[in-house]
Amino acid sequence: MDIDVRGPRFGAAVTAAVLAVVLVTGSAWLLAWQTLAFLLGAAGGVRRSPYGLLFARAVRPRLGPPTAFEAPEPPRFAQVVGLLFAGLGLVGYTLGPGWLGLAATGAALAAAFLNAAFGYCLGCELYLLGRRVAVRAE
Length: 138
Known about the structure:
Layout: E1 3-4, H1 6-25, H2 28-44, H3 50-59, E2 69-70, H4 73-94, H5 98-118, H6 122-137
Antiparallel strand pairs: 1-2
Helix pairs in contact: 1-2, 1-3, 1-5, 2-4, 4-5, 4-6
C-alpha cells in the first residue's frame, strides 16, 4: 500500500531539527532518541515510526487529501541508512572519537534536510539504484 509523500517529508523535517540540536548541544541522549526513531521506522516502516504516527494523528487530518503517493520501501530503506549514520554518531558521541559523532550526525542531518526542504531522499535514491543494479545482474 502506497504512502502519502508528505509523511516522510514531515518526518525528515523533524529529524533534521533533532539532529541540528544534537550537533549544537552534543547530546548523546537526544541522538539515542533519534537512533531509536530510525530503528522503529526501519523495522515497522515509516507509518509506524514515531514521526509517522505524529504525522498521521496530528498533521494529516489538518491537511487536504493527499495528491501524491509513493511506495513504502524506499523511505523504509532510507530509515535503515539513517539508523546506520545515527548509530555511528552515537558511538562517536559516547565512546569516541568525537569527530565520528559530529561527522555521522552531520551527514544524517544533510540527508534529512535535503528530503525536508527539497523532497530529495538520498536513502530512497540508494534503494532505487540498488534495485536497478540487481535487475541488471539477473
